[in-house]
Design goal:
alpha/beta; eight-stranded mixed sheet; 12 helices; 10 strands; transcription; LysR_HTH_N; WH_DNA-bd_sf; DNA-binding; LysR family transcriptional regulator
Length: 300
């Protein structure tokens, strides 16, 4: 077999991480047809198709996933070589691609990423979407880690690894005017209108079970999918929000909102999902290790 053409491999590597031929061609300043030719030559040399084409979207085949793992290692080692022998400490820039559930607390996401934010040798690529969209991107090697609030279903056909990284209590949050009532939890739930997560969320499932056990009939002011919108509605005073305090950390700190009661046996979990890979992204492993629940307070 002829020696591997690393130019072909680099083009493949760039397309595999971007997931789109047109965008990659624009970033590399080459024509789309030239990029396609380079990838086709690599496929011919390896004897395997590296992508399945689904319209404009490119999905890695099994051979493509194997090739990408090796390409990640090769080009990471090349960057390290330039950094060490080229006497350029800033020459090696590591990239971490993070996907987060669109409704996930922004405060939590910032807390997770904070160890890397000031590093000049790191470039972060941040995406948001549904759980299904993010896991698909992870499986296609277009993301290195996905942040969600429920572990995905795992079976023999999937190679996801779910890392529980935090568990936050859930509370009733309202404006300072609500604190004047001095009501017990059951009375608060029965009297005040509520801003609740939507039915499919883990918090809502636990909350519905709680009010059923308490025998309380609640009045719903709004059902909201996005945590940021729940925070805004709570600030407007239209009702008490059922959220983890980390979502409204800044408002609690400046006393524009107050925590009226912690909801017993109710919490939200935060999960980092990675793919079982021969060469995992070291930055993802570093963040997950530093964010171990026993060693880190995500609200800090």
């Amino acid at each position: 077999m002829a020696a591997l053409n690393y130019n072909h491999l680099r083009y493949f590597w760039a397309v595999a991480h971007e997931g789109n031929l047109t965008r990659t061609a624009e970033k590399l300043h080459v024509s789309q047809s030239a990029l396609s030719i380079q990838i086709r030559k690599l496929e011919e040399q390896l004897g395997h198709a590296l992508f399945d084409r689904n319209g404009k979207q490119l999905l890695l085949t099994e051979a493509g996933r194997i090739a990408l793992e090796h390409a990640d290692t090769i080009f990471s080692a090349g960057g390290e070589l330039l950094s060490i022998l080229g006497d350029r400490p800033g020459a090696r820039r590591q990239i971490l691609r993070v996907g987060a559930l669109a409704t996930l607390s922004r405060n939590f996401q910032m807390a997770f990423l904070r160890p890397l934010l000031a590093r000049e040798d790191v470039e972060l690529v941040l995406r948001s979407g549904t759980t299904a969209e993010l896991l698909h991107a992870l499986e296609s090697h277009r993301l290195d880690v996905v942040l969600i609030n429920l572990p995905p279903v795992h079976d023999a056909a999937t190679s996801w690894i779910s890392h529980p990284i935090a568990e936050q209590p859930v509370s009733l949050i309202g404006t300072p005017a609500h604190a004047d009532h001095g009501l017990a939890l059951k009375d608060l739930l029965a009297r005040e209108p509520l801003v609740l997560p939507t039915l499919e969320s883990s918090i809502r499932i636990g909350f519905d079970a709680l009010v059923d056990r308490l025998g309380v009939r609640v009045r719903i002011a709004a059902e909201v999918e996005d945590m940021a919108m729940m925070r805004l509605l709570a600030r407007e005073g239209i009702g008490l929000a059922v959220v983890p305090p980390i979502v409204v950390r800044d408002e609690l700190a400046n006393d524009s909102l107050v925590e009226l009661a912690q909801l017993p046996e109710l919490s939200e979990t935060f999960v980092a999902v990675t793919l079982s890979r021969r060469f995992p992204n070291p930055l993802a492993r570093e963040l997950i290790a530093s964010f171990a629940p026993a060693a880190h307070d995500p609200a800090g």
